[in-house]
Amino acid sequence: MPEGSIVQRTPAHTATQAAKVPLYESHKTIHPKAVKGLYRRLKTITFSILLALFFIAPWIRWERGPEAPSQAVLFDLTAPRFFLFWIEIWPQEIYYLTGILIVSALGLFLATALAGRVWCGFACPHTVWNDLFVWIERAFEGDRAERIRMEKQPWTTRKILRKAGKHAGWIGLSLVTGFGFLAYFTDAPGLLRDLATFQASYEATSFFAIFAGMTYVMAGWTREQMCMYMCPWPRIQSAMLDEHSLVVTYQADRGDNRGPKRKSQSWDERRAQGFGDCIDCGQCVQVCPIGIDVRTGEQSDCINCGLCVDACDTIMIQQGLPTRLIAFDSLAAQDVRASGKPYQWRLLRPRVIVYALLMLVIGGAMAWSFALRPSLNITVLRDRAPLFVTLSDGSIRNAYTFKVANKTRQDRAYTLSVAGVAGAEIKVIGEAEEESAAHTATISAQPDSVATYRVYVTAPRASVTAMSLPLTFQLSDTVNAAETDSRDSVFMGPTN
């Protein structure tokens, strides 16, 4: 074709060219194969412990006194309180939950720095329920090869029954999961009774249906798509890794070149032809719940579950070869061994030390703060309109909303006083309808509740020497004088 000539592309030609480059990859159903080995046992043990904790915790009873919930672990949204055995977290103490989340995130960073996405492979709730759903699927439809064959077969009565049995098992587990999750927010025995007798509230029924439905969809249908496309952690975790992090790796220097091995072929003949130990059986791919091939290199989608290690070790043992062709290893170890030098794994590394220290400092600060937290807490809100009121005798009055939180399980009486303004008197308007003004007042609070009072502070005009004066509210228990709390506010007055 002459240089500079123009090729006229027809619409049909353009469409054909565009069709060759798909914008996305069509979903392929993954049927993970059953496998036995060390990491499969570790996953089963971990899953069993986590599931037992999840389903049993709401049924554990814990006596807290009269009119207090007896459930050991409860997120009571009506109180609202968070109960964890002997610990009770109030809404204004939400920073404790924030601290727990921060420490948990740092723990996830630390685990990732040490062993990649090991959390995803062994402890992530989605992985746990995904494994359970696959186990139910395998019980009704058989292992991988049988499931693939059945998918290609026409619909028969047997196929319909097997599919129906699988989905019935999925729905049953989803319903149990929905109840288990909802039981953390209300009394478990009462919730079970209400659901069984169709007397549950609209809110409880709705959330039960939502939790059960999401479990069925996410663990039954989305499966690996949740880990690959929806979860942001695969993209974040690469920043947490370093060359010494233990991840599932394929020993390419030992395995490649890979290819099938004939039974009549000896290993000496095979190696003479340039082949490695990998016989390209594909077992590592078939057992992977994500459906990736670890032999193509380190991948963010790998959840470090180790099932491919078990599958490869089984094949290596059958072939009479050393195991760990696929193993938990670090990139630094591979590079050092390739140079013929010994490698020693480094546990203490800068990022590991930083994550551990942050967890220790934040966790220690939370524990110290919780151990010293008072059972009494007050809040003072000064009225903004009007800023102050001038009484007939010339004195100045400010109004405040005073709240006292009694975090004990007994009725409490307190003595309230103010300091900072000379001659100031207080008058409390509340349940007791206390109307007499004095330098102190007595208020009360019921067990595990917040009492709210209207408080007037009146000061002589001569004591109000500025537009704004510091004022301190002081509250002390009438029985236990050591139980005290104070809050700073201001007393507003006219300009001089």
What features would you describe in this structure?
The chain is of the alpha+beta class and 496 residues long. It is built from 17 helices and 14 strands. It has helices at 11-19, 38-56, 94-115, 118-122, 125-141, 144-152, 157-182, 188-196, 202-222, 224-230, 233-236, 252-255, 267-272, 283-286, 307-319, 331-338, 350-371; strands spanning 73-76, 81-84, 87-89, 247-250, 326-329, 376-382, 389-390, 396-406, 412-419, 425-429, 440-445, 449-459, 468-477, 484-492. β2 (81-84) and β3 form a beta hairpin. α3 packs antiparallel against α17, α5 (125-141) packs across α9 and α7 packs across α9 (202-222). It is elongated and about 115 Å long. The relative contact order is 0.10. The model is unreliable at 1-18 (pLDDT under 50).
